[in-house]
Specification:
The protein is α+β, with helices and mostly antiparallel strands. It has a two-stranded antiparallel ribbon.
Amino acid sequence: MLGLDRITFNPRIMAGQACVRGMRIPVSLVVNLVENWRRLP
């Protein structure tokens, strides 16, 4: 499945947000970091 097996949903972890498997890092945080990094001059 195109590498999406690392994204998990669990209602007991991070209030059900999509997270990186085995870590409490929300996917939304990773996407925001990448977006803001691209905006740097």
